[in-house]
Amino acid sequence: MFKQVLFFILPFLLLINFSIFAQHRAEKLYEESNTCFDNSDYDCVVIKLEEILSSSEHDAFSEDFILKVYQKITESYYQLGDFQNTLKYVEKSLSLTSGDYKPFYYAEAKKVKAHVLWRKGENVASINEILESIKSFEHLHDTSKIIESSNILAGIYVSIADYKEAENIYEKMLQIALERNDSAKIAENYEYKGIVKFFDGKFDSAIYYYDESLKINQKLQKPIESSINFANIGEAYFKMNNYVQASNYLLKAIELQKEYSFNSGLIFSLFTLGNVYTNQNEYDSGQYYYDQSIELMYETGETRELQLVYMLKSENFAKRGDFESAYLAYKTHTQLKDSIFNLEKDRHLNEIRVQYNLERKENENLLLKLQNEEKALEVEAKQRLINYQFVFGGFILIFLIVSVVLAIKLNRAKHTLTVANKSKDKLFGIIAHDLKGPIKNIDTMLKLLKNEKEESMKSEYFKYLDQTVHNLIDLTNQLLSWTFSNKGDFNFNIKNLDLKSISKDTVGLFEYELSSKNISVDNSIPEEIKVLADENALLTIFRNILSNAIKFTKNGGNINLTAEPKDGSVQIIISDSGIGMSANAIEKALQGKHVNSSSGTANEKGSGLGFSIIIEFVKKLNGSLDIKSDPNTGTKVMLQLPKVK
């Protein structure tokens, strides 16, 4: 009899235990997503929240928790410029809420939906949604959210050139923010007041308000908001024909917006910079930035300004005398303008406001009826679940020990898998990081070969190409061999290594980059010095340090490699005559944190992965690392490793 009861109850207990574990994991992922959100890493937020929603157990999570997830993921997709997924999760939120049921989440979803519709140029639909949002937030007495929604409403007025009404709203919201001493909202409304001044032709006043907003956002460390300030200041200087200042501010905006994937702002910054270059008769540069902006619009679906950019392209072609291209661009502009904008709808905004309350009440009554029916079914289902819990409550106590043992085993398996996954992720990161340079060199040399006419130069390029391919094959075999030898955590094979040979092999991998930038390398490491280390790890350390040195050393510079015994270890020094590192970057690098990658002296790109790999491997090799840097003399990386006794 006992075995029969056990056979019947055990699956139920396991199901309950698994549900508890799934809820705990979901809450942990949500907390991690908040950290990503605070760091403006919206891709990270989306990955973690999508994992929650794709869980087979997500239907068992509480409704409030699911709504929190929907709210966070919609805002993240919006910041990434992915309006399709933004609207997808907005509609999911609205399906669980109404004006009277979960009013905060309802109002927040309406606000985001209004913002997206406005960005897409659908002013009429947008104003309907934002009025509903404002009304709900007023009912909740949520002043901060009232300001946010009201600012969107004012933005719609700006879109239809009703600047007086827009400025009245912005000023009212600014005063509320000042009374509350809400720095973020103060900065936001300074920015909006600047926008109104800009459209009113008062560019000096616009720059003043933009700059006030920028000061607050930089103090609050809000990079996306700061990038918007930079872009708007650049546009104002452009209108004042100050092209140098305009370019400076717009380039700052573009750098931040690319770093944080703020595509909505990036679209605007790109075509505005294109306009700056066009007005300086730099037509190719102008067309380049127009095309970048158009490509991003099609990618994100934010096509509100698409017809404007085609008009700017047409003007650019006409100024340079290419009238056929100018005509085609203008034709596209006209077609887009007719299809995107419906001016007649905008003229009826006031009529929509009058009709709004009546239509809302009718829809609300229907929605409440459907929700009441759904809630009744939910209550009945929950009551049945409670009855089952009472029946099986006694058995849960009996099998609690079994559940605990299973949970412990599951946790151990999870830990083992996590360690293995982290190690493999690092290995793949190293492979991608180290192979990127040689592959880029091959691509560059193939392009040069394609366009080169002189046979002597072709021969030189073939020589470089042949050497680079051989280096790439050797490096690939080495990395793959290393990868397959690690079945979990990193397993280092410590042995005596010839430091001179390691350094020569590493320098050979960068022969093309050194030649193209005319950088001389002085390898003064003595032949007899040996160290105790893992060969693959040491090669990886040397590759990353030398790659950074080349990246930030100007044409004609030099790199020096030296080594000497010191207190039972070997001190290796790799110094360059480059542009140096900031104190903040050095601090992050030495702590093994991710360093935001910046462009090199020849506009080389990086991943920011290198130093985190170096620090981890140096620690595993029982070594130490220090960095000294000066903008005038360059950077010196000092590595200490155990010496062969």
Automatic annotation (TrEMBL):
The keyword Coiled coil applies. Residues 353-383 form a coiled coil. GO terms for molecular function: ATP binding; phosphorelay sensor kinase activity. Residues 430-645 form the Histidine kinase domain. It catalyses: ATP + protein L-histidine = ADP + protein N-phospho-L-histidine. Signal peptide: none annotated. Its EC number is 2.7.13.3. PROSITE patterns: HIS_KIN, TPR. The chain crosses the membrane at residues 388-408. Keywords: ATP-binding, Coiled coil, Membrane, Nucleotide-binding, Phosphoprotein, TPR repeat, Transmembrane, Transmembrane helix. It comes from the Bacteria. SUPFAM superfamilies: ATPase domain of HSP90 chaperone/DNA topoisomerase II/histidine kinase, Homodimeric domain of signal transducing histidine kinase, TPR-like. It holds the Pfam family HisKA. The keyword ATP-binding applies. This is histidine kinase.
